[in-house]
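Thread title: Can someone regenerate the structure for this chain?

I was given the following input by a collaborator and told the matching structure tokens would be attached. They weren't. Posting the sequence so someone can regenerate them.
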Amino acid sequence: MFHRNEPFHPSLERKVADSSAGTRLSPARTEVSDDPVEANPASEDLSFEDLIREQLIRIGENPNREGLQDTPRRVEKSLRWLTRGYDMDVEEALGEAMFEEKHDSMVMVKDIELYSLCEHHLLPFFGKAHIAYIPDGRVVGLSKLPRVVDVFARRLQLQERLTEQIARAIQDTLQPRGVGVVVEAYHLCMMMRGVEKQNSKTITSAVHGAFRDDMRTRDEFLRLALIQQPFIT
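Best answer:
Regenerated them for you:
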């Protein structure tokens, strides 16, 4: 019989305890770096699957029952896929798909589906991104903009940060006259837990260059991004 908070094996309990020893944060806020952290040496002999297996036990489940026997492996594979953005970069996503072109009007790609994980609860948020830019002698292949979205969405994220990272990446690599990004998303951390509000949608925007400096350009972008009627029926 498995009970909540019981480890599935005493040796694993000791390993988990040893790996977390000395890492408890004080109540006071501590300044930390955003850089990746190396795994605690004491936990190096713990596999990813071991940790998932222990989590199942801590919530009161039996990881040896038929339906859960392969769950640790599946969860590891799933999390590595959902966070594959850490191994991607913008330059690789864009490739060589930037072309010299004298086009000086707004280019927009709307309704780019995105899926990400809230870094506070590790629950999904999902929705659409709308990206527009005004070229300054170069355009980018349209299919590359969704790839830029995936670079940053497939990580542990905040929607506010995600929106700004997409805009900044396009501004820095393509160097257009301006770029605007709007993200509309539903957050399961608000829908299936906490306040449990099923119809709440979060909208964030980031604007650079002409989209920030010229009110008419910004207004046109936001109107096109947030219009609900389809252009093609």
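The beta strands are 98-100, 107-118, 124-134, 138-140, 156-157, 178-187, 202-209.
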